[in-house]
Amino acid sequence: LFSSVELAPRDPILGLNEAFGADARADKVNLGVGVYYDAKGHVPLLRAVREAEKARLEAQLPRGYLPIDGIALYDAAVQTLLFGATSPLLADRRVVTAQALGGTGALKIGADFLKRLSPAAPVAISNPSWENHRALFENAGFTVQEYPYYDAATHGLNLDGMLNALSSLPAGAIVVLHACCHNPTGVDLTEADWARVIDVVRARGLVPFLDIAYQGFGDGIDADAAAVRMFADAGVSFFVASSFSKSFSLYGERVGALSIVTASHDEAVRVQSQLKRVIRTNYSNPPTHGAAVVSAVLNHEGLRATWEAELGQMRERIRAMRRGLVERLARAGDFGFIEDQRGMFSYSGLSSAQVDRLREEFGIYAVGTGRICVAALNDGNIDRVADAIATVVA
Ligand code: PMP
C-alpha cells in the first residue's frame, strides 16, 4: 500500500530547531522559534490562566461534548475582543463565531466553507506570508497566488505594489490579510494604508480573510484590532481567523476562533448552519479545556484585568528588546526599522549567508530569510546577538 509514498519535504523551521537542540555550545541562541519567551527564556504560564485552571480543576466538571461551534460565552468574548463591545454588527447579530482549533483550525474551517461557496475563486496571500497560508488554502482545493507586500529596499511595506495587485484580482477573489504583527516580516499597514486597501476590496468585490494571531502583541488589544474594525465599518462581508495561542500563551491547547461577518442576521443564521456542517465533518466539535480557560478569564473582571496586565508586559518586553537591539546595532548601521516593526517577528535584513555565519560561528539560529523572533531575545543574550550581527554585517 505504501510502497509509492514519497518522503515529504522537511519543515525548515522544525529542522532548525533540531539542529539547535543538537548544538553543544552553551551560549547558543534560538531566534528561529515562533513562540514568545519570557525574560528568563521560558514559555510563560500566565497567572490569569493558572487561576482559571485552578478553579476549573476544583469544580470537577463532567466532560460532555461541546456544541459544534464551541462554548457560547467564549464565542461572544471573541467577538467583543475583535469588534469592540459597542459594535453595531454584534448588536445586529450579523457575526457568526465558531470556536476553532487555534488560528490554523479557524483558517481551515473558513477555507473549507469558502470552497463550497466559491470553488473557483483564487486566493491571494502576501509575499512573504506565514508559510502555512499557501499550503492550507491549496489543501482546501484553491489556487494560491501572491500579492507584493514587503519591500526589502525600505524594510517596509510595498503599498503601491500591494494595491496594484489587489486591483487586478477578479471579483470574488479571496484575499488573506494579516490584521496586525505580520508574520514573518513584522511590517504592518497604517490605518491610512488599510483605508486604501478597503477601498480596493470594495471596488473590486474581493473577499477579505483577516488573520489575527497576535492581537495585543503590537500596540494593544484595541489598537491591534483596528483593521478588523475598519472592515466592519466598511460594510463588507469578511472572515476573521483569530488565535489565543500567543496572547494567552496557550499554544498546545489549540484555542482560536473563526468569525464571519455577514450582511444581516438572517444571513448569519444560514451561514452558521453551513459552517457547522463543515466542522461536524472535520472533527465534530472542539476540545473544552483551553477555550473554557480563556472564556473564564475574559468573562471575569478580575482575571481579565490580570490577563491584560500580563499581555501588556509581554508586549512591552518585545518592544524593549526591539529598542535594545537597534541601540546596540547603531555602530553597525541603521537598524531603526526593527523598532518600527510589530509583533514577535522581524525581517532583520540579514542575508541567508549572514544567517549561516551567525549559526556556524556564533551558535545563533535564525530563519534563512533573515526572520528573527524578537521575543526570544532577553537581557542575558541580547549583547551576544547584537555583537554577532554586527560582525556578520561588517
Ligand atoms: N496565522 C499566523 C500569521 C501565524 O503566525 C500563526 C501561528 N504562528 C497562525 C496563524 C496559527 O496560530 P495557531 O498556533 O493558533 O494555530
TrEMBL record:
Homodimer. CDD domains: AAT_like (cd00609). It comes from Luteibacter sahnii. Transmembrane segments: none annotated. PANTHER family: AROMATIC-AMINO-ACID AMINOTRANSFERASE, ASPARTATE AMINOTRANSFERASE. Residues 27-389 form the Aminotransferase class I/classII large domain. Its cofactor is pyridoxal 5'-phosphate. It is an enzyme of class 2 (transferase). This is Aminotransferase. Keywords: Aminotransferase, Pyridoxal phosphate, Transferase. It comes from the Bacteria. Belongs to the class-I pyridoxal-phosphate-dependent aminotransferase family. Its EC number is 2.6.1.-. GO terms for molecular function: transaminase activity.
